[in-house]
Design brief:
Elements lengths: L1 E2 L6 E2 L15 H4 L2 H8 L5 E6 L8 H15 L3 E6 L13 H4 L11 H10 L2 E7 L7 H9 L9 E2 L5 E2 L9 E8 L8 H13 L3 E9 L1 H6 L5 H17 L4 H7 L6 H18 L5
Helix pairs in contact: 3-9
Amino acid sequence: MITGGRWGFVIQHSQQRPPLRKEIIQKAEFIPDQDRVKHKRGGTMNVIALNGSARGKKGVTWKLLDSLLKGLSEGGATVRDIQLKEMNISYCRACLTCMHKTPGQCAQRDDMDQLYPFLRESDLFVMGTPVYTDNMSAQMKTVMDRCICGMDPFLRLDPANRVRHPYSWTMPSKFFLVSTSGFPEMDSFLPLIMTFRAQAANFGCESIGEICIPGSIALQMAPQLLEPRLDMIQRAGKMLALHERVEPTLLEEISRPIVTGEQYLEISAKYEAWARKSRGQTT
């Protein structure tokens, strides 16, 4: 059931599931011994940030993500960012070799081999993606699919009383989302946020926040409107590095729509004029 909440929606279960009779496995048992140190250590936060925009560093997604990463670096985190558009990563073939023959290792050899060590070593995963057809970009979805190789074929009850796979290796323990959408309405992000949170949970990780700024078409036509939010996002990044959390009030302030629907249409008229010209239309 979806009811009112932040941006007008929260997700609730219509009824509580009855407890299953089998013993619930503890979270520590889901995490392989060689990865437990990563989840317990103190000191510098290691961050892996993936930009899933097909436009790479030319788009609004990168502007948002870059500001967050600058703040994380200011807060003392070790940050590595990767542009997925520059990588050659094939789709998951669902061959299940990673589960049945070579535990923890994908059968395909491509640029995912560069990502796996960073994912295994990092404490925080920052997902940067625009909203494409109501969800994350194809580039980002392909990466997430290929991370299934970290799961074992066995089935267990997790601490939330859900049947899930335990892990041969683990993703970063915390997930954070940075996104933008072409349309100006906040509910454009709802399917993406639901998917992002579900993926974090399925990998045994915690989703700790989302920065979602709508109206990217207008923001590309009037980039000065975005500048104050970039400063706020940088502040959020520093807070995230220092405290492993961002104050909810700051996240809400950052993700507040920058322009109204009417303002969006007025500013985007410049884009429409350019689009008509590129199509050879005069009116």
